[in-house]
Specification:
Number of helices: 14
CATH superfamily of the largest domain: Bira Bifunctional Protein, Domain 2
Structural class: alpha+beta
CATH class of the largest domain: Alpha Beta
Number of domains: 2
């Protein structure tokens, strides 16, 4: 192309008024105006016919066919067009017309190459009923996401909807009077809720706050976990656990309406209606229902450990009652919670930041939400008693000394904030990646992450 006098990377700007979809939607009116049309996009399909060619140009959201002919372009223009490849970006000018098969197209008079693809992309020649190839290799799809979005429209749609879900979440909390805040990523102590020590200061003067931020965990990659993920946390003063349930229900309902236009969505052949209230179940009662272990067997560590062994689960690494209860939940209950469900009443050992339940010694005012057998949120009636909180941290230090790496560290800054006075409050965390998985019907976390964690490529 450079030898022909055209540098394919030299063009800085190409002006055009209409998207591909707008050209198709307003085709007849634009034809009647008989104006020259300009358009730019990537070549995603090619069909050569001697001294003429048909190309499909995509602007990302849509595509339109263009027709180029040697007699219209001149010798040099035609020679340049013959050097075009799948994946190239070009600009065209010409008139709209219909082909003999009624295909709405642009009859090109001027062609402007703007970027040359130097690789063979996962696109194809025009085939019957198919306009571009598929990139099916999972490793390549996630490692080279730009190719995945180019070759697989369904992958592009899923990631666009994931972005819309996050935007809708912000819209919901903004309209409900919450203030969006930002807290530091770098902290001296990692907490179970990453923003909590800082949000406490906001809670003292601002009754409703939320944050959408990045969270990091030193854990392996799986279809449900990524070491880096996006977390929504929201806190509201003078409300309790039941109010947090209502907030979660309303948030999911709002997001479904804004992103999908309906509160009812189909996931895996099953219809979920987020207009309805979520189910509410007790943790110990659910364990009994699905494992046969009675609540009285879970009143002390020894009997709980014996019950755990009886149902075939390993017990060697268990060192507290709460850990056993949550292992039973994970093994026997979670997969049964397909409909949107709140599981209520978690043990104190695994809930160091939740208020104690005054009616159930050893348990807290905490719930987790589940959809399709997967946890999507975790909420508390927040501790605002600094004396109770210090005792909890001291218990956690003991657990950490005994080998529990997940035990919460002592956080003097947080305690000082509580000692200055914090109102009663409800707080909730929602993993937005997991939320997107649930609402989009994805079975793997990497499908809804633009840039999922990947191991380095081997030489």
């Amino acid at each position: 192309m450079r030898e022909l006098g055209h540098d394919p990377f030299a063009v800085e700007k190409f002006e055009f008024k209409h998207s591909a979809q707008e050209l198709l939607d307003n085709f007849d009116a634009l034809v009647a105006e008989d104006q020259e049309i300009t358009f730019a996009g990537r070549i995603v399909a090619m069909r050569e016919m001697g001294k003429a060619s048909f190309l499909q140009l995509s602007d990302g959201d849509g595509r339109i066919q263009v027709y180029i002919k040697k007699d219209d372009l001149g010798e040099t223009g035609w020679e340049i067009s013959m050097l075009l490849d799948l994946g190239d970006h070009i600009g065209v000018a010409g008139k709209l017309f219909r082909t003999r098969t009624e295909e709405r197209s642009i009859h090109v008079s001027v062609i402007t190459p703007m970027s040359k693809s130097l690789h063979i992309l996962p696109l194809g020649k025009e085939k019957e009923g198919e306009s571009w190839g598929k990139l099916s290799d999972v490793e390549q799809r996630y490692r080279h996401r730009h190719l995945d979005l180019l070759a697989n429209p369904e992958a592009r749609k899923m990631l666009i909807n994931r972005a819309k879900i996050v935007s809708a979440v912000r819209h919901y909390f903004d309209q409900e009077g919450y203030l969006e805040v930002e807290t530091p990523l770098l902290q001296l102590e990692a907490g179970g809720a990453a923003a909590r020590p800082f949000l406490t200061h906001y809670n003292a003067d601002v009754p409703k706050v939320y944050e959408v931020g990045r969270v990091f965990r030193n854990e392996g990659v799986s279809n449900r976990h990524n070491p880096e993920f996006t977390m929504l946390e929201f806190y509201e003063a003078y409300v309790n656990l039941e109010d947090m349930m209502t907030r979660v229900e309303e948030c999911f309902k709002f997001v479904c309406l804004e992103v999908f236009g309906s509160t009812t969505i189909d996931l895996g052949g099953h219809s979920f209606d987020f207009e309805k209230p979520w189910h509410r179940v007790d943790l110990l009662e659910s364990i009994e229902k699905f494992s046969g272990i009675k609540p009285e067997e879970l009143r002390d560590f020894d009997s709980a450990k014996a019950a755990m062994a009886r149902v075939g689960l390993p017990t060697a690494k268990e060192n507290n009652l709460g850990g056993i209860i949550e292992k039973l939940l994970e093994r026997f209950v979670e997969n049964e919670l397909q409909e949107p469900t709140f599981v209520v009443g978690y043990p104190i050992e695994t809930s160091p930041l939740a208020k104690k339940d005054p009616n159930r010694p050893g348990f807290t005012r905490r719930f987790e939400g589940y959809i399709r057998g997967r946890e999507v949120c975790n909420a508390f009636s927040e501790i605002n008693d600094p004396i109770d909180q210090r005792e909890r941290f001291e218990q956690q230090l003991g657990a950490r000394a005994a080998g529990d790496d997940e035990a919460h560290p002592m956080d003097e800054e947080f305690l000082y904030a509580l000692e200055c006075g914090m109102p009663p409050a409800g707080g909730c965390g929602i993993g937005l990646d997991r939320m997107a998985m649930m609402l989009l019907g994805s079975e793997h976390l990497r499908e809804i992450l633009m840039f999922p964690m990947m191991k380095p490529e081997q030489d």
